[in-house]
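ugh finaly. both done.
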Amino acid sequence: MPFQDTCGRAIEYLRISVTDRCNLRCRYCMPAQGVPFRPHDEILRYEEIVQVVRAAVGLGITKFRLTGGEPLVRKGIVELVAMLARIPSVQDLAMTTNGTLLSHYAEALARAGLRRVNISLDTLDEEKYAQLTRGGRLADALEGIHSAERAGLRPVKINTVVVRGLNDDEVVALARLTLEHPWEVRFIELMPVGDGGEGWQGEAVPGAEVAQRIGAALGELAPAEGTLGNGPARYYRLPGAKGTLGFITPLSEHFCAQCNRIRLTADGHLRPCLLADGEIDVKAALRRGADLGEIQALLLQAIATKPDGHHLREASPPKGRGMSEIGG
């Protein structure tokens, strides 16, 4: 059984950032020049990540997701997946990726033991995609989606961060993808984490507004039963659709009371909450030879210090790290 935090939430999910690097520069995530350089030795080694996961499963944490940055830019990522998939009690192993490199890795990842992927896709317009990602190719991301599906990394989930005046005019077109494909398209409210640089500012669009626009154009959204997920999305289905729509609303209808996760940053810090700056250094313990019990004690400390909720409504966004450094 997973341990509960002080609010009675069962913590069964660990998100692991394997790198703060990315091959794209999405405007809501990081500045054009990328994140500050970190020497390779500051990043957790794969063997250290495995140690943390072994400690976590002993505490009832059974669901794991590899994130970044972009996890596929880290050398040897397939080998890490295989190492984690072999650990007893790892029940669910997934990855969040921008998809642009996935066509090269999807089959190998599936063979190594990855179950499924979430792929970021904020627009279906080639020029807008290049502008938003500062040089990315929409065709690469779309090929990544199809490669994941062919490799059996299902259900394919598509994450769309909705920004007013940037891509909110495309929510109906993105929702329409679920009519023909068995995909889960999830609309996410923009969170004030990260520095897009160049004076960039984005305005979040409430999930209820997105749902209303989609419903008015494509028909009534009915609650979707039996949808797989470890997170806070609420799922619906359009009439006759093969796939589903999800809405993640950290601002307009926050889901802190149901949060079931903690995070491990690429440089080895446990972060109890995405939207709060508190962290616990696990890398130092790993590198002085800490045993399984000591790592579990740090995990329990992270669980015990998990806040009851974020304070974004009080205009108190986290200041210590950008989204690409935390792992989303």
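ok and the 2nd:
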Amino acid sequence: MTGTLLIVAAGPLQVPAIQEAAARGLRTVAVDANPHAPGMALADAAYPVDIFDVRAVAAIARRENITGIMTLCTDAPVRTVATVASILGLPALSVAAAINATDKRLMRSALSAAAVPIPGFREITTIDEALGAAEKFGYPLALKVPCSSGSRGVYQINNPAELADFFQRARNLRPRGSLLVEQWMQGPEVSVEGVCCGTIPHVVQITDKLLFEGAFPVEAGHSQPSRLSPAIVAAIRRVTEAGVRALGLSDCAFHAELKVTADGPKIVEIGARLGGDRITTHLTPLSTGVNLVQSAILIALGEAPNLTPRFSRGSAIRYFHAPAPGVIAQIDGLDAIERLPGLELLYAASERDGCLAPGFVIPEIRSSLDRYGHVVFSGNNADEACERAGRALAMLKIRLCDKVASR
């Protein structure tokens, strides 16, 4: 490969794109408001600018004579990527599609207009409107901040008292504008990993998802390939492809989330980027042999990726879960986990708060940022990978010395 690739945002989720591009001979340019973001030191050129400042990012793109622009696994830069690509005539999704994919209200409207299966929803601005929606949909229901990701600002509501409480929490995140109330969908949850070559969506893999229990539906783990029936997997593919087309996505990666309800698969949301939680960088390559990071880079450069699976194996990630929030007094089992067959990654740390050790404060898990360690395993199939990951979690022993107030 030749050329210069601009990666918008340089946090941990973007680092694999910078590394992959460099390994393929591309010159890399990174922009991020945080000059100490890990990708800034890895790129050939780095600019500490606000990723939402489209004019500044476009000026950098012109100065560096870029041949492609992208983000990897983060929603926040998607609109900037689309706008700058439009200004410079580079491959990317349209600005309108980027807006659809980063505002849950507009996403719901676009999917509904195209008759793509979704839960019932209502935009609300006051607690009285929220209570009215609850009367229509019943409990449990979902309350969502429209422009957010990583499970932040998404709440499961079981009664009017919880609705009042979480409405205020959502308002703290989004003081003005409307929020979303939706029917809570019951059933297995999956994500779909793929890319759009032009306007044609290509599904690469389907991922089964586990959630932590409680009001905050944060991912506790993932596994590939999906262990749902072939008929359901085929329906998931059809609904995802219809949703991608309804949002107008093109020349981009996508990460769709769906629930398989009694009425069939329905879309939770579709992001115009790849999945985090090691889904892109570890699980999909381990289960299919497809390099999704390279595929996203090629699409940003206007080239066609090879999406043909090289094999079919299993992969799984599981996140650590202590018995309660508190301060770690002792942690055991890490050495034993390292000796298990199929181990691909042991990450005993929080990207936000550092390594697990005595004195580490374990928070209540309210978003993906609150998680504090995980393991990735491969296997001959999904069953074997999940069994190995489950065995690892059973070996991990975290003893707490003190309870702390949740964050």
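summary for the 2nd one i guess: The longest strand covers residues 200-211.
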